[in-house]
Amino acid sequence: MSRHTISVTVNGSAEYVDVPSNMTLLQMLREKLALTGTKNGCEAGECGACTVLLDGEPVNACMVLAVEVDGREVTTVEGLAHDGQLDVVQQAFVEEGGVQCGFCTPGMLISAHSLLDRNPHPTEEEIRQALVGNLCRCTGYTRIVRAVQKAARGRV
Amino acid sequence: MLARPGFPSFDYVRADTPAQVVRLLEEHGEAARLLMGGTDLLVRMRDGVIRPRLVVDVKHLPGMDDVVCAAQGDLTAGAAVTMNQLAAHPDVRARYPGLAEAARSVASYQLRNRATLGGNLCNGSPAADTGPAVLVLEGRMILYGNHAPSPVREVPAGEFFLGPGRTALQAGELMVGVRFPPPPAGSVGRYLKLGRNRAGDLAVVGVAVLGFPDDTAPSGYRFRIGLASVSPTVIRAWEAEEVLAEGPPGEATFVRAAEQAMEAARPIDDVRASAAYRAAMVRNLTLRGLRQVWERLCEI
Could you tell me which of A98, A117, A103, A86 has the C-alpha nearest to residue A47? Predict the structure, then answer.
């Protein structure tokens, strides 16, 4: 099996990683770079627990081969906070109680962050549509939607 | 929950030219698979349905992720153009709104950043959402292979889908794009999709409707109807289209055409819906699509 040395920017820092061709971006993040905030859920692109930003756009890290991200930029949930300060979306999830077991939360945060970047004032329907690919079995979504609405107000 | 087995071993090659891809396909045959967004390929590999020894990444070939408008009014979308790219592209939205709507109906936002037009079509799934839109727009599949005198041949969408998982792609060929002729003057297009939930699901039924004024039709209008997830392939509902061309346009004709579309469907029972339910929903969605397109046609 082929191996590849890739260069990738993860949360702002340049990394050189040796990966076998059958390793996913998700495995690389968790096992090679110890970034375990990104969760391994369904491994089929359904649940969104592994959502990360690839060149600024959300993708399911379980559905991307690590070798494909050579030369590109990845942001994980660990990259959202800056200087010990939570990102406005993270802060809103805390304040609104948008977290129960927490397994879906990293993916939710990344998807919500991406939504607010491209649409700073989403309607409730737009929020729900944007989070279709992030499944939560605990909250019933109400508090998550409220948190995203609060974050949108906070970003103004 | 049981962990999935993970991927078997394979080699990965990022291809730079279509000729290189053809060489690799000829050399490795069935053992080689082409990768674009991977949203179907990687799932099937992980489930052990297919076990390629070589994965050839073709999404970086020149032009594969470009949407290009030609002077004569054609629009060509590279095979690796993603669903989100299609759904957001100003020319696709303005001139082929039914295609943009179909692209936007696929799965989730994250998946649409990876899922590609070419992948959706080349998998030959009867449930491919872009299939009916490409059929009613009479797109032409651009296939690259070891042919003479030109390495490129075009196959009309209507001749491309042969059966579940089967297309006109031959061994050693790859799709590099889809060429859309200019939309008919004054046309209105829509894609209506029914899933088990309101978003993110595969289609139980998908219906593309394109309507436009045409003096050569007795009714003064022509409509094209494409159906997904109700036959072994995506299909056109030709008899329904004839009913609509005869006219007169209006509710009674639309009801008869919707019945004809239901007759054209050959649905099966599966995990998502029964055949009987699918047939009834073909009628309902076709009728709804015709009403909506007609309303817009009357406004123009």
Answer: A103
